[in-house]
Amino acid sequence: MLYQSSRGDSHQAASAEAIKRGIAPDGGLFVPTRRISLTADEIYALAKVDYRERAVRILSPYLSDFTTEEIWDCIQSAYNDRNFDHPAVAPLVELEQGLAVLELWHGPTCAFKDMALQILPHLLVKSMIKTGEDAGILILVATSGDTGKAALEGFKDVPRTAINVFYPARGVSEVQKMQMITQEGHNVGVVAVQGNFDDTQNGVKDIFGSQTMAGMIAERGFKFSSANSINWGRLVPQIVYYFSAYADLLANGSISPGQAVNFVVPTGNFGNILAGYYAREMGLPVQRLICAANENNVLTDFIHTGVYDRVRNFKTTISPSMDILISSNLERLLFELTGHAAARVREWMSLLKRQGRYAVDTETREKVQQLFWSDFASDDETVHCIRETHRRYGYVVDTHTAVGLHVYNKYRSATGDDTPAVVLSTASPFKFNASVAKALLGAHETLGKTEFELLQTLSAFSGMPIPRGLQNLQNRPVLHEKVVEREQMPQSVISFVHKLTGE
Question: Hey, which residues are catalytic here?
């Protein structure tokens, strides 16, 4: 399998090079040059094996320059009982007939990003060896909260790598912030940016695109790469859990072989739901991918109109990991749906950068609408859904999963479609405990309590244990206190490299 740029660069890369680079030389995203297909029998066979075996079968065709033994080594290093607190890794919980929740938050940072970021460091180190890379790899990450901690945890003390994470100073929860600024590791750096996530993400993209910055860190023995979902090595492991959910439905007798399902995905950066698109392209019987947004509903508007317009008020919501107005992975989908028309994609991305908006052609818009459906949830609707889900099922969900459930209810009302559905649960309710506890217990029971005190409150109410990664978080020493303006981000990277090299 080779990979090409979504913006037309003629160079094709094997998976090891694509993972090491993170982003294509022309600023585009690496995309597979051909389609992978599984037979119905191969999909059905997944019901008889565990998550690790499912992963090796799904990943192997995409990582054809890796041996089976190398892929197994990466999988076993990632999906084990040291990292994940559930033997199924990504367990499926059926709320009622025809509706299940896929829990993707049993990893060390209690968010779905662990599903990819526990394996990416192992893939990256093997990729460096395969490509004969002599330089160290400096990972740059922009995070709306969850990717940052998951990447820090994944790359902590990994040989020949370093990681510098940027997060919006006022755009993450206290729990998310404490997870990052208390991160240990000799090769990690964490920096707050004065601005929102899109300011942070654009700052990182500008650094990636700067030949001056590349040259400055090369002089100090490093090359840039990414752990955001612009890196194919981050996105491809996410395809696995779509197949795993389907396999569990088969194993449980909830569906019959070949029966179609819908997936409901809370998403801001579009990577999570794009993995579902690739699963569908591989032959997984997916009828509709339902894109669940919060009040930063730029994706909902795009799916309905074909116009992507980020020129709008940015809203800070109780589902902060989705507070995003620039959905980077949409570029990959547009490249695929236009038949790899890189010139068109390049023009749309240029318009987005220059004017803040673009409109796709009618044919592309109709293709998007055939595959995707979308709506959004307000904060009030999200709170109501948390409360109603617990009342109806005795099940506690975080704010992002509640967005997904609420949008699924809107979908059912709008379409009458009773196809079995799986809602991706992207974070533990403890990760956003202030909002969850307030929704379930009322403001009077939570008033004056810190997020860390509310961990105990929510645990007592729900009967669920506080996840390992969140226990005693407030007592850990703060190790990263740097705050910069967006235009200071490049200099902060240079300062970080100086620290790594002892200059």
Answer: 113
